[in-house]
Each structure stands twice: as structure tokens, then as C-alpha cells.
Design a protein that fits this description.
The complex is a heterodimer.
Chain A (H helix, E strand, L loop, with lengths): L2 E4 L3 E4 L3 E6 L11 H9 L7 E8 L4 E8 L4 E7 L11
Antiparallel strand pairs in A: 1-2, 3-4, 4-5, 5-6
Chain B lengths: L15 E10 L2 E7 L3 H7 L6 E2 L6 E2 L12 E4 L5 E2 L10 E3 L26 H4 L7 H12 L15 E12 L3 H12 L4 E4 L20 H15 L3 E4 L2 E7 L3 E6 L2 E12 L3 E3 L12 E3 H11 L6 E6 L3 H11 L3 E7 L8 H8 L4 E3 L1 E9 L2 E12 L2 E10 L2 E5 L2 E3 L2 H5 L3 E5 L4 E5 L5 E3 L21 E3 L4 E2 H9 L5 H8 L12 H12 L3 H4 L13 H5 L12 H6 L2 E6 L2 E7 L3 H14 L2 E4 L4 E6 L3 H8 L12 E7 L5 E11 L2 E6 L4 H15 L4 E4 L4 E7 L3 H5 L3 E2 L13 E6 L2 E6 L8 E7 L3 H11 L6 E2 L2 H10 L34 H8 L6 E7 L11 E4 L2 E12 L4 E8 L9 E6 L3 E8 L14
Parallel strand pairs in B: 1-7, 8-9, 8-13, 9-10, 13-26, 15-22, 16-17, 16-22, 17-18, 31-42
Antiparallel strand pairs in B: 1-2, 3-4, 5-6, 5-7, 11-12, 12-13, 14-23, 19-20, 20-21, 24-25, 27-28, 29-30, 31-37, 32-35, 32-36, 33-34, 34-35, 37-41, 38-39, 39-40, 40-41, 43-46, 43-48, 44-45, 44-47, 45-46, 47-48
Helix pairs in contact in B: 4-5, 6-7, 7-8, 10-12, 16-21
The chains are: A mainly beta, B alpha+beta.
Chain lengths: 91, 926
């Protein structure tokens, strides 16, 4: 079983975490046309390489971000969401 | 013939000659000693036939004596497929062979071997499929013929379980290399776990012979074992098999009926070698075994493996076998050494000095049997790779020991991502590209004879004993176009049997390489996925732990005769009494006509506090909350980014910066988590707390509820003007601090009373006492579901699915239009511009007809135009009511729809406007 390093709780078994999907900056609903909005909601990059993902330490309900290489399943680093999210969530 | 083959001590380190054990094999009483396995005890009594092979029903016997092959799979009275060379004997144990018709000795199924040429590799794919339906007949026949053991259907559960373990270093393999590695690691201060799959430490020191001194291994073992035992930081587990390596050094270890889930900082793999087969005609006859198997029989169990032996050699280890055979009183008729020149190892010299004839540059071309046991071998000179001279000589023998080469037990290393390499010149293996924190113990060098494969015109040179695959099968698979070793495996099923390619992977790689004109290094071997050894379903299941949540009022429900059901992890009362129909009907009418009590403790509760609390709720729910007045309750509908309804509840404003939000019982965990994820991005100044289990809740509901409740309340008024519908108040109820909500889920005057969790039972008791004169009674969730259906309220997850949007649910009223933003808002804007594809409508059907059920289809001629999501006979309205998705064309009240009930009859129903009951909502607002 994989170990994931939670920025708050340290290294824990992956079974203690909930996956929250790929991180993407929030789109501006006012400025997006229908197609751009549909792309934002339904299409994910599915990138082969390093992606940023949401993870939640289930027991402590702590959300953070992880950089993971989808080709090797290696987690390069994990960090608090505040590093990326600005005050209105649109970075 | 009792134990005729038993050797005197000191041979037989594992058996205790003082303790005789009798058991039954094939109905015959057999004696052995404590410490014997089934196979060793049978061999001691000269019983060599253990099983029949899978496809051709060929007689099979001891091959490895190490539990690495499928030859020894036997049936115990309660358990199939047990390894006879691993399973210890016990008094009265009943053992039979497997996979035969008639008797193990006279198996009618063995005739099938004569038709082998009509059953080529892949024949399943070619034959038996015509005419149409033929396979159904054939498959039943094959199932019977090609089965393994018999499952005991009267089996009762056994105590399997799981254990978590942690260590600095796990050393896998308790042989000399493993013991040394463990000692080294312990010396450097590490906590070490040493795993040995056999019953004792020592590995090859228990049976092999590295030199001429018969006692050298024994002494070395003694020294290492005492060092291991003296090291306090080494924990030894014997009879423990590491069956798989998973990410970050997570190792599964099977030991008895327990699965150990081990996390190690470092893995040191010292699993040694697996001795390999030689391929020649009838190489599977009982009496043909690995050299190491003969040594194990002699030294571990004190069993003479034969009377007159031939040793097929490809390396010097074979001469260790020769010396051991001689020491055990076995006549060695010849050593047939495949190598053109014999080495000068001291064991070779010693064997010659003891008068053993060595035939170098020769091979065993064929084995011949008599009474299902080896009787002679045909030895021929090797004239080229895999080619023998046209004539040779026959040597009578009842034992052929094969020692032509080994393969590292590479499985766990490769699971960890390492690479297995093969060097053609020296026919040697190496393992490279090991992951971090994974090491290999330093093993000694064993020579491999590069091509111990000798095809025979009559075939029967088995590559894979489990699946009865011969040289031609592998070659034909490549001719059929399956040129990659992985494809050959899947087409031929090679390596897919119980022994998982431990002996077939190497010859297959060699044959595929030759047939396709590539090198073995290029061909590679097939992937060896976990588990390395069989895991039972019991191991995987372990002990079952189901989390269960009980409300503080749980045993009051039991006392009242409730039938409990599990909703998520929560136990909730479904209805009270033995007759569900009657109970639910009475409970519904109770709420409509007087007063009932419903335990709503399981309802999700989330506290939202902070300067941005209202803004936060405005973003996560479709409704508006900025201007909500403290002391009021508003409906809350949650959509995801795609505009799909994912939860609902109510928002209670307790203060300017303080809200209490309810969520569905099953949805609250996900809703709370999603809220936190949103705010990890929005970074609003708000604190969220999941308080679901902090509060018990009781809904006192029905026209008489106010009268029952009023005398219990202090600190607030319950009358209509002071505490109107959709109000929230805090005060004291029956001496308990409480929060009360007036909501309309079931559509009657009612108060949802939330109190600290531990006060739930006291509140329940107080309300039951206070309501006694009014005839109060508890009401279960089945009645609650029916009550809400009469009100046309949806249950998210029952009346909605992964596509439901608020427009389909006719809940546009719950969407605030003036907000800048809420999750899903932009998508709803797009959806609203499009025509609806379906709508959720209420319907009524003839009360005399059969009641449609959830998921029954709405049909229009041959077309499916929708489905029922909720339906029941309504006691209040005395008719069948329900909710259904229908085509928008059929959604107008007055439309007639047809419901296909169980595919047997069609029920006609009329679409009606909702709610079914108290359309103006007057009763809940009393």
C-alpha cells in the first residue's frame, strides 16, 4: 500500500485518504462561453506526466494538493492548498 | 510395507521417530512420524502417486518437495487443493488424490492422453463452438474432467484474521543468506523481521551439500541459527510466506490463517533459487524429481527417495545430490552430465572415487515407466543444442534426480519493479534496477546448463506440469501467431496454473526465443504478479468488521419492537411491530391524525460559522442566504458543477455569523468533505464542523404535537405566532438544552428537536410520557418515507440520479436568480436554455391495481419513456401514488401513463399535480 505524506499529518497509508480529482483553477463563470464552461466542467487533461491533484486526509478532513507523476504513480510532493488558491480561488 | 523407505537418524531432521501418526490416503491407512508432510509419509511407505494431472490425467508424484509445484495437490476432507509436501500429517487425517474418475491408481480419465494430438494448444478456442450451443454441452463435460478438488459446501466459517506489522528491515528467506543479512542488519541496530516459508530456519543448509563434508551445512546452520536467536532485535516467523510486494515496501505475509500486512523500511530479498526442470519424454513420471527434492526427502524426512538412481546433471550441485544419495544407501547407476566436460569440483571427484559412472555430454532422452512409476531412462549423447544421437542406452532405475539449473526466486523483486536479466553465454540470471530500500541478499553462484530441452517425436516432454503443456504446444502457439511470450502465456495458459510458472517460465522463454529467432534476454519471462503462493478467500476476507452507528435512542426502538434497518452505517427503525404493512399504515395515520415521534438523530448536521458564513452557503447551495433572518429556516439544494442535484437539507440561521445546516443521512460525509474542498479554494473566512454525531434529534409531528410539547418547553414560546413554520428556536425542552426546527418534510405541524447526543433517550422518554394521553407512538422511517411521498418531496439518491437537475425535478423555485455565483449555477443557466429531456412527476393509479415498484418502466407502445422512482399505497389518500420520470410530453397533469409492472402487466396511471396531500401546505404551517 502506498504511503502519502499529508502536509498536516505526515506519512499515512493511502487508504486514509480520499481522492478529489485533478486540480484546476476555477473558471470565471461570467467570462466563459458555454463551450469553454463545458470544457471546464467535463473535460480533464488526463495528462501523462506530473499533474496536481486534490487529496483529503479523510479522518481529519484536511484537503491538500499533491504533484503526482501519472506515468510512474510517484508523488513528487504534497503541499497545502493555500500555495495555489488565491483569495477568490481563481489563480 | 509400513515406512519401508525410512532411513535411520540422523537423516530426517524434521521428523520425530518417537511419535507415530496414522492417517488415511485413498482409504488406506498410512503411518508416518510427527513432523512428516503427507507426501513424505507416503514416500516413506513407498507410495509415490499423489495426483492426476489437469488435462491428460497423467500420474504425478513428488517433484520439488518444497510446495512449489501442483503435482502434490491433494484433497483433505474439508479442504481441496492442499500441498501434500507442505501439509503436515495429523492423526486420523483423511487425504485423497484429486482429478480422477474411478481410482487414483486406475483413472479412466487417463485415456485422454492417447488423444493428446487431437487436443492441441488453444483447442478450446477452435473446437466445440459449432454447432451453436455446443459449448454449453462441452463445458459441463470439461468442468467434470478438468476440475481440481472438491469444495466442501457444508463448510462453516473459520477464524481467519489480519495483522498489521512494522519493522525496519524485513528479510525474506531464512536460508544462510537471509540469516546472515538479518544478523548484519540487527548488528547495525535495526528491528528485523526474518521470514521463512518452511517450518524451520536454514533453507538450503537443511538439505543441500556444497562440499564433500556431509556435516558442514549442519554446523553452519547451527552457528547462524544461534546467532539469530541471540539477537534480541530479530523476530523470526517460520511457515510464513511473503506472497506479494506492494508500493512503499508493503508486503503481504501469509502465516497459518492470518494475513500479515507488513510495512518495512527496507526489504532484503533472500529467497534463493528454484530448481528447474529438464525437458525430455515422460519427464513427469513419478520417480523423476528435482535433485533438491531427493535431498529434502533424505535429510528433512529421513526417506530414501529410491533404490537405484540416475542423476541428470547440468552443474556441480548434482554431485552433491550424488553424494547424498550414496550416503542414504541409494545405488547411483550413472550421472548423466549434459556438460561436455565435467568440472573439477571436489564433489565431482568424490563421486568418481566412490565408483559412480559419469557420462558427460549426455542427456536423458526419455523416461519409461512401469506401474505408474519410473522404471528406466534412455540416455543419449548430445549432438547439438537440444539434439541427441539416434541411439542410446537404457538404464534401469526407479529414481531420476534432475539437477540441471536454477532460476532465482525473482518474483517479489520484479513485483517491486526490478528487472530480471539473462546472460546467454553463461545461462545465468541477474536482477537489476532494484527500487530504493529494496536489496538482494548475496547468493552463491549456481551454474545453469543452457539448453536442457530434448524434444521427442512422441512428445510428452512437459514444459508446464500444471496445464500439461508440451514442447509442441509452446512452439505451435508461436506458429499460430502468438510470438510474444506474454501472448504465448495467454494462448497456451502456460504458467497460469497453481505453480504460477515457477518451473515453466524459463523453458517457455527458451522455446519462444528459439521458435521466433530471438534471444532469451529479448524474449524475457512472463510477469509474476502477486500472490507468489496461493491465498485463500479466508485470508483476503479476514475477520469482518462492519462499522455500525446507533443513535442514543437505539434500545428504545428495540424495546418498542422496531425492525431495524441499516442506512449507511446507521441503524434506524424501519417500522414498529411484526406486520410491516399494518405498522406502516398505522404509523402514517398516526402522524396525519394525532402525533408521532420519529428519531432523526442520523440526519447530517454541519455548523457553519464566521464572517463569510452566509456568503459560503450562498455559494454551495442554490438558494439565497445573505438576507436570511436569524431564527429562520430555509430549504437548501446542492448541485455539483454540472448542475446535478447531489444533496438537500435546510439551513437554519442561528445568528449573523452562525448557521446550522442539515444534510441527508447518507450524504453528509461527502457533502462536508466537498464543502471543505471548495473552501480550500475559495478561502472564505468560515469554519465548518460536522456535528452529525454530536446531536440526537427527535421529530415530534402531527396535529397534536404542539399540545404535547408545550408543557415541556421553557425559555421560548411554541405558539404559532412566536414560533412560526420555518422558524428555529433555542431553549430548554424537558430540562435539556435544545434547538427546535419547524420544517415540513412530512407535511404536518411538527418540531424537530435537536439535543446533545447523550440526551436523546431522555428527550424521547419525556416526549413519550408527555404524549401518553394523546396516544403518541413511535414512527419509523418507512412511514416517514411514505409521508414525504404524499407531500411530493424528493429523496436525493432515490428520486434523483447522477443526471437529475432542478428543472427536471420541477424545483426551479429553489434557485436564487440574483446571486453572482453558486456551484452549478453556470451549468444550470446552460441547461435551462435547452428543452427538458424528462421530468419528475407525481402520478396516481387505481387503488385496486397492483402497486408498481421503484424502477418499473413507464412505457409508450414499444418505447420506454421513463421510470418509477417512488411508489406506495397511500393510507391518507387511499390510492396508489408515486413519483416517476417521464417524457416532458407526458408530464402535464391529466396525462395518462402506462407502467410496466414486473414485465407482466401494465398499470395505467394519471399524472397529477403535486403535492398529493395538503396542496396548499396549510397543515405544516398550523
Amino acid at each position: 500500500m502506498k504511503i502519502l505524506i499529508c502536509p498536516l499529518n505526515g506519512p499515512r497509508n493511502i487508504s486514509e485518504f480520499t481522492y478529489g480529482g485533478e486540480y484546476h483553477p476555477l473558471a470565471d463563470p461570467q467570462k466563459s462561453n458555454d463551450r469553454a464552461w463545458a470544457d471546464y466542467v467535463f473535460f480533464h487533461d488526463n495528462h501523462a506526466g506530473i499533474v496536481i491533484e486534490w487529496w483529503c486526509h479523510t479522518a481529519s478532513s484536511y484537503w491538500f494538493l499533491a504533484e503526482r507523476d501519472t506515468r510512474t504513480d510517484n508523488v513528487v510532493r504534497t503541499f497545502p492548498a493555500s500555495e495555489l488558491a488565491t483569495s477568490d480561488g481563481r489563480s | 510395507m509400513s515406512q519401508v523407505n525410512r532411513l535411520p537418524a540422523p537423516q530426517g531432521s524434521l521428523v520425530d521417530r518417537a511419535q507415530t501418526v496414522s492417517f488415511e490416503f485413498e482409504g488406506q491407512c498410512v503411518e508416518g512420524f510427527a513432523g512428516d508432510t503427507i507426501a513424505s509419509a507416503l514416500a516413506a511407505s513407498d507410495l509415490w502417486l499423489l495426483s492426476r494431472s489437469f488435462k491428460y490425467h497423467r500420474p504425478r508424484g513428488v517433484l520439488t518437495m518444497a510446495g512449489q509445484d501442483a503435482n502434490t495437490l491433494v484433497q483433505l476432507s474439508g479442504e481441496p487443493n492442499c500441498l501434500a509436501d507442505r501439509t503436515p500429517i495429523s492423526e486420523g487425517l483423511q487425504v485423497t488424490g484429486q482429478n480422477y474418475s474411478g481410482s487414483l491408481r486406475r483413472d479412466r480419465g487417463s485415456l485422454i492422453g492417447r488423444f493428446a494430438r487431437f487436443l492441441p494448444v488453444g483447442f478450446y478456442y477452435h473446437a466445440f463452438f459449432r454447432p451453436r450451443g455446443a459449448w454449453n454441452w462441452w463445458s459441463a463435460w470439461f468442468r467434470k474432467k478438468a476440475g481440481l478438488g472438491v469444495v466442501d459446501q457444508s463448510f462453516v466459517g473459520e477464524g481467519f484474521d489480519k495483522q498489521y506489522r512494522f519493522c525496519d528491515v524485513v528479510v525474506i528467506g531464512g536460508g544462510p543468506v537471509g540469516m546472515s543479512a538479518a544478523i548484519t542488519a540487527a548488528t547495525s541496530g535495526a528491528e528485523v523481521l526474518l521470514l521463512e516459508e518452511h517450518t524451520v530456519l536454514g533453507g538450503s543448509l537443511n538439505y543441500a551439500r556444497a562440499g564433500i563434508d556431509a556435516n558442514a551445512e549442519k554446523l553452519r546452520r547451527k552457528r547462524l541459527v544461534s546467532e539469530v536467536e541471540a539477537a534480541p532485535s530479530i523476530t523470526v516467523m517460520t511457515s510464513a510466506t511473503a506472497t506479494g510486494w506492494y508500493a512503499d515496501n508493503w508486503v503481504s505475509v501469509l502465516c497459518g490463517k492470518r494475513l500479515h500486512k507488513l510495512r518495512a523500511r527496507k526489504v532484503v530479498l533472500c529467497s534463493g533459487y528454484l530448481e528447474q526442470l529438464a525437458l525430455f519424454h515422460n519427464n513427469d513420471l513419478p520417480g523423476v524429481m528435482m535433485g533438491s527434492a531427493a535431498q529434502r526427502l533424505i535429510k528433512l524426512y529421513g526417506v530414501q527417495p529410491g533404490k537405484r538412481a540416475v542423476v541428470l546433471a547440468g552443474n556441480d550441485e548434482a554431485y552433491g545430490v550424488v553424494l547424498d544419495l550414496l550416503d542414504a544407501g541409494v545405488a547411483v547407476a550413472a550421472v548423466v552430465d549434459c556438460r561436455a566436460e565435467v568440472s573439477s569440483d571436489e564433489r565431482v571427484t568424490a563421486a568418481s572415487h566412490r565408483g559412480v559412472a559419469v557420462m558427460s555430454g549426455h542427456a536423458v532422452y526419455a523416461a519409461h515407466g512401469d506401474h505408474q512409476h519410473l522404471a528406466s531412462v534412455e540416455v543419449r549423447r548430445i549432438v547439438g543444442q537440444g539434439e541427441c544421437a539416434s541411439h542410446g542406452e537404457r538404464i534401469n532405475c526407479d529414481l531420476l534426480c534432475v539437477s540441471v539449473g536454477v532460476m532465482p526466486a525473482y518474483q517479489l523483486a520484479c513485483q517491486a519493479g526490478a528487472e530480471l536479466n539473462y546472460e546467454e553465454q553463461s545461462a545465468s540470471f541477474s536482477i537489476t534496477r532494484l527500487p530504493p530500500n529494496f536489496e538482494l541478499g548475496e547468493a552463491w553462484d549456481v551454474e545453469n546448463f543452457p539448453w536442457p530441452i530434448f524434444a521427442h517425436p512422441q512428445g510428452k516432454e512437459f514444459v508446464d506440469f500444471d496445464e500439461d503443456l508440451q514442447i509442441a504446444d509452446i512452439v505451435n502457439a508461436t506458429l499460430a501467431g502468438y510470438k510474444h511470450v506474454q501472448l504465448v502465456k495467454r494462448y497456451s495458459t502456460c504458467g497460469m496454473g497453481p505453480s504460477q510458472g515457477r518451473h515453466s517460465a524459463l523453458p517457455t522463454a527458451r522455446l519462444v526465443a528459439q521458435a521466433t529467432g530471438t534471444t532469451i534476454a529479448e524474449t524475457g519471462v512472463t510477469t509474476a504478479r502477486p500472490p507468489f503462493a496461493p491465498e485463500t478467500l479466508g485470508h483476503c476476507a479476514g475477520r469482518s468488521f462492519y462499522p455500525a452507528l446507533r443513535t442514543n435512542i437505539h434500545h428504545r426502538h428495540i424495546e418498542a419492537g422496531a425492525q431495524m434497518l441499516q442506512a449507511g452505517a446507521w441503524y434506524r427503525p424501519a417500522y414498529y411491530g411484526d406486520d410491516p404493512e399494518r405498522a406502516i399504515r398505522e404509523e402514517v395515520l398516526q402522524v396525519r391524525q394525532s402525533v408521532g415521534l420519529i428519531d432523526v438523530s442520523t440526519l447530517g448536521g454541519i455548523e457553519v460559522r464566521g464572517p463569510d458564513a452566509a456568503e459560503f452557503l450562498n455559494r454551495v447551495y442554490t438558494f439565497a442566504y445573505m438576507k436570511q433572518a436569524p431564527g429562520t429556516v430555509r430549504y437548501a439544494l446542492m448541485t455539483n458543477e454540472a448542475g446535478v442535484v447531489i444533496d438537500d437539507g435546510v439551513v437554519c440561521r442561528l445568528g449573523p455569523q452562525h448557521f446550522y445546516v442539515t444534510a441527508t443521512t447518507g450524504g453528509v460525509e461527502a457533502v462536508f468533505r466537498k464543502m471543505l474542498q471548495w473552501n480550500a479554494q475559495w478561502r472564505l473566512d468560515v469554519v465548518l464542523m460536522n456535528v452529525t454525531s454530536a446531536y440526537a434529534g427527535v421529530n415530534i409531528v402531527g396535529p397534536a404535537s404542539r399540545a404535547v410539547l408545550e408543557p415541556l418547553c421553557t425559555g421560548f414560546d411554541v405558539d404559532k405566532t412566536a414560533f412560526p413554520y420555518l422558524g428555529v428556536r433555542r431553549g430548554i425542552v424537558a430540562g435539556i438544552p435544545a434547538m427546535l426546527l419547524r420544517v415540513g418534510f412530512v407535511g404536518e405541524l411538527g418540531y424537530e428537536i435537536h439535543v446533545p447526543q447523550h440526551c436523546g433517550e431522555a428527550l424521547w422518554d419525556a416526549l413519550m410520557d408527555a404524549g401518553e394521553s394523546a396516544g403518541i407512538r413511535p414512527v419509523g422511517i418507512e412511514a416517514q418515507r411514505l409521508l414525504r411521498l404524499e407531500k411530493g418531496h424528493v429523496i436525493v439518491g432515490q428520486d434523483t440520479d447522477a443526471m437529475s437537475n432542478p428543472m427536471e425535478l420541477q424545483m426551479q423555485w429553489a434557485i436564487a436568480r440574483k446571486k453572482d455565483f453558486f456551484v452549478g449555477g453556470r451549468s444550470l443557466e446552460v441547461l435551462e436554455r435547452r428543452p427538458l429531456r424528462r421530468m419528475l412527476v407525481g402520478f396516481c393509479a387505481n387503488p385496486a391495481g397492483s402497486v408498481p415498484k421503484e424502477s418499473h418502466l413507464i412505457i409508450d407502445g414499444d418505447n420506454m419513456i421513463g421510470r418509477v422512482t417512488s411508489c406506495a399505497w397511500s393510507p391518507s389518500l387511499e390510492k396508489i401514488i408515486g413519483l416517476a420520470y417521464v417524457d416532458p410530453a407526458s408530464a402535464a397533469p391529466g396525462s395518462v401513463i402506462s407502467i410496466d409492472v414486473d414485465g407482466r402487466r401494465t398499470v395505467s396511471a394519471e399524472v397529477v399535480s403535486m403535492p398529493f396531500y395538503d396542496a396548499d401546505g396549510l397543515r405544516q404551517a398550523l
